[in-house]
Specification:
The protein is α+β, with helices and mostly antiparallel strands. Helix content is 69%, strand content 9%. A five-stranded mixed beta sheet has the order 1-2-3-5-4.
């Protein structure tokens, strides 16, 4: 064996109960119950009187607590606390022998020998096991052949348990690595598929919208060359509106492509851009403002996309149902979620009309999107106008 083998701890997976089958868990519980019952029986059977029984039972309880501490310390790979707990149990065994409980002492020494080999580094486990089995051989009343065979069997059992635990720990590590590899493979496949979808959208929709913008701009220039008139102004207004919608559609398409590729701009930057484009000519009163509270951080793609879509939908509804309203947007980063509030001051139409109007991906669709992420969306009339509140985990 190498020096590293003697000084290394069994892995945490080996020292824990992770990976044990139900049958082995039940077997371990049964063995612990039998050992504890044996210890109690030995104190009552060998004790010289009632007070000795009480002292023996107390000694058993102390040893059980020390054993639990030993298991916890070894799980954390803390050598000196582990050795201290083990040596205290061995000392308790010596005290039990001196106090007239030979069976209790033998069981404690045997348990220390086996568990030391199973859970400690070999450099510390071998001396502890030799000391425990040495004490066992000295005080055991059987013939020397039986005693030596029993001691050798206990040492072999402890080492076999150590090998079994290490094999189980290795299996658990390999299983965890395989799961991580599968998750990474699935994530890579998902990113690849999203990149493919992004390319398809870019090649079809983005190119189409860009071409529409070119043609609409050409149409606008041609119409502006015509003599002024009512018909010319109406056609020009429609072309300009169509050009604006095409430009907005292209911008949203690019945002969707960025989301698919995982290259989204920060939410607050997107909201500032959205607010800056909500001035004159969009149905909103000038002076729209945005407030960002909390420590800014990158949001998961789903939460970020939900915040963006809810903000867009809320501003669209304000333009439709409260033209001329002043809008206030508030984004707050909380400990484990993000909150968005879009509030308007009311317009020429009644704010209550918003709750019952719209179709498709309106507020109902946004509420469903928020609930899929475990969040909430509330929308309704406020003191002056209408307010939309979104909270999603992030």
């Amino acid at each position: 064996m190498t020096l590293e083998t003697w000084l290394s701890w069994p892995s945490r997976e080996a020292l824990s109960r992770v990976g044990l089958t139900r049958a082995r868990r039940n077997l371990a519980r049964s063995i612990r119950a039998v050992v504890f019952g044996t210890l109690l029986w030995s104190t009552f059977h060998d004790g010289p009187g009632h007070w000795a029984w009480v002292a023996g039972a107390g000694l058993v309880v102390v040893c059980v607590l020390l054993a639990r501490a030993f298991f916890r310390f070894t799980l954390d790979h803390r050598l000196w606390p582990s050795l201290t707990a083990l040596l205290l149990v061995m000392g308790a065994a010596a005290g039990a022998r001196a106090g007239g409980w030979p069976v209790l002492a033998l069981v404690l020494w045997c348990g220390c020998a086996v568990t030391a080999l199973e859970r400690l580094p070999l450099a510390a486990a071998v001396p502890c096991t030799v000391a425990a089995l040495g004490a066992y051989t000295v005080v055991n009343n059987d013939n020397w052949v039986t005693t030596m065979v029993t001691a050798a069997g206990l040492g072999l059992a402890g080492y076999v348990l150590r090998l079994d635990a290490e094999a189980r720990g290795t299996a658990q590590r390999l299983l965890a690595q395989e799961r991580a590899a599968r998750a990474a493979e699935a994530q890579s496949a998902a990113l690849g598929e999203r990149a493919r979808i992004a390319r398809e959208i870019h090649d079809v929709l983005a190119h189409s919208l860009s071409a529409q913008l070119v043609h609409l701009e050409a149409a606008r220039l041609l119409i502006e060359r015509e003599p002024p008139g009512e018909f010319r102004e109406k056609i020009l207004e429609r072309v300009v509106a169509a050009r604006g919608m095409a430009r907005e559609g292209l911008a949203e398409t690019r945002q969707a492509l960025s989301a698919l590729r995982g290259e989204m701009t920060p939410v607050e930057d997107f909201l500032h851009t959205l607010i800056e484009g909500s001035g004159a000519g969009t149905g909103l009163a000038p002076g729209a403002r945005i407030q960002v509270d909390g420590e800014r951080r990158a949001l998961p793609a789903e939460a970020s996309q939900t915040v963006r879509r809810v903000a867009q939908e809320a501003l669209t509804n304000v333009r439709k149902h409260a033209p001329g309203a002043v809008v206030a947007v508030r984004l707050e980063y909380l400990a484990d979620e993000v909150a968005l509030e879009v509030r308007d001051s009311g317009g020429r139409k009644r704010a209550g009309e918003l709750a019952v109007s719209g179709s498709g991906y309106g507020l109902l669709g946004m509420r469903e999107r928020a609930e899929l992420l475990g969040g909430t969306l509330e929308a309704g009339p406020d003191e002056e106008g209408f307010v939309v509140r979104l909270r999603v985990p992030a």
